[in-house]
Amino acid sequence: MKCPKCHAEVEKGNLYCPKCLAEIPWVQEFNSVETLLEKKKIEEPKKAPSHESLRRLGKRRRIKRITVLVLGILILITGVFFFRQMNSFEAFYERADKAFAKGEYERAIRCINAALEKDPENLKANLLLSRIQEKNGKTESAMLVLKPMLKEYPESAEVYGQMLHLMEIEGQYSEIKDLLASCDKKEILETYKEYICTAPTSGLPPGTYTSFQTVALFADYENIYYTLDGTKPTEKSIRYTEPIKLKEGTTVLRAIGINDKNIVSDEITRKYVIVVDSPKPPEITPEEGNYDKRTMIEITVPDGCRAYYAFDKIPTVQSTVYEKPIAMPEGYHVFYAILVAANGEISEAASRIYYLEY
After folding, report:
1. Which of 159, 205, 237, 310: disulfide with 315, CB 3.0–4.6 Å?
2. Neighbouring C-beta atoms of residue 36, cutoff 10 Å
3. Is the pLDDT of residue 166 over 70?
4. Is the pTM for the entire model greater than 0.90?
5. Superkingdom, according to UniProt (predicted)?
């Protein structure tokens, strides 16, 4: 300690400064509780930990290490799971589907291609890719996507529907016809029957006829086209609107139909031969001769014909039409009768000479 007056060094315990003899004011030192405790801790020898304490401490440390390890593994597994989920087929497909719904076609293409890398032959992914390509204006590419799917999934109505839709956009009507012709699945054909154009039918069977005929054509659509000269019919041929009158001779009728989807039907061909013969003279009863009582004259009229008659002159179509038996007139008369067929052909006149006298 230094003297407070002359600042000379004073040894501990001296009450006066050895230099200037000034009184040195020593202060009694007091230890705090903390200081005493600290001194006691230093002075006391450390006790060695017990075996039980060491065992519990080791156990706690092992539990802590195991807990940390388990948590680490769980975090790793969770991370791997979510990574796989985020990069799975379903995740990519879902993103592509949502992007497609929002009209984000470029993003949809990237996502669906990523999905197809996981499962290249997946049906719903290929269908979605085709629809995206269609929206991007790449119809041919969209069709190329579906062609393998038709072979891979021949029972999928959805694949057929998308392909038919794309073919219709491209105007590939003959290809539509061929595609459905190659399909043997009744359910698919029934589902897309609007794309099927059945051939028209004719009301008159082909063959030879001895009278003039008309032919009616039938279909479940409006547009039927035909030719009568044996040439191949097209949509530029005669459009059917009413029954066709057949002329005398040979007629080859060829017809097609075109439905509302512009699909052309198979062609039908019908050959008709019309040979028109004049009807034979009618049969007249009774036999000619002399009669002495009231007698009725009758004409036998075949189906499809009408009879005309006259006395003492040959009848024409302007003469009296035969409808019922005719009373024989008195005296000497020549009765004439003719037949007129439905086609207008007229028979030669038949005649009977009668003499009636009461």
Report:
1. 310
2. 10
3. yes
4. no
5. Bacteria
